[in-house]
Amino acid sequence: MVLLNWTEQAAGDLINIRDFIAKDSPKYSTIHINRIKAKARLLKDYPKSGKIVHEIDIENMRELIFGNYRIIYRIVNIKQIDILTVFHSARELNSILLL
After folding, report:
1. Which of the listed CATH numbers 3.10.180.10, 3.30.2310.20, 3.40.30.10, 3.30.70.270 matches domain 3-98?
2. Which residues, other chains included, contact 18 with Cβ-Cβ below 8 Å and sequence gap of 6+?
3. Closest CA to 91 of 74, 68, 58
4. DSSP string, 58-92
5. Quick one: which of 22, 30, 40, 76 is 20 to 30 A from 15 by CA?
6. Distance between CA 6 and CA 38 in Å, rounded?
């Protein structure tokens, strides 16, 4: 099975998303974060299930979509995937931070 490594950036993104949603609904913020994490866990069995990030166009840089959020990840090797960032799709991806 593949190890999912949540980078500091991605972990911080989840905290920011949780805090933003919690302003309106603390209960829903927890549910939403758990759903994002569950979506990412699918990568353990299907690492190439996400599409290639079009802004970067590198085979091992992929993304999963969950609602309005993009979960950007890098396939490091057959045993590890790094979750790099999670952000709202209305925002631009700063590819410099991901390389």
Report:
1. 3.30.2310.20
2. 29, 30, 32, 33
3. 68
4. -TTEEEEEETTEEEEEEEEETTEEEEEEEEETTSP
5. 76
6. 13
pTM of the model: 0.90
Cα distances from 3 to residues 14, 26, 75, in angstroms, run: 19, 29, 10
List the 51-52 sheet strands across, edge first: 3-6, 80-88, 69-77, 61-66, 51-52
Domain map (residue ranges) of the chain? 3-98
Nearest Cα to 62, choosing from 70, 52, 71?
Answer: 52
The structure tokens 């989840």 sit at 14
Q: What backbone torsions phi and psi does residue 7 show, to the nearest 5 degrees?
A: -70, 165
- Can you tell me which residue has the tokens 């190890």? 3
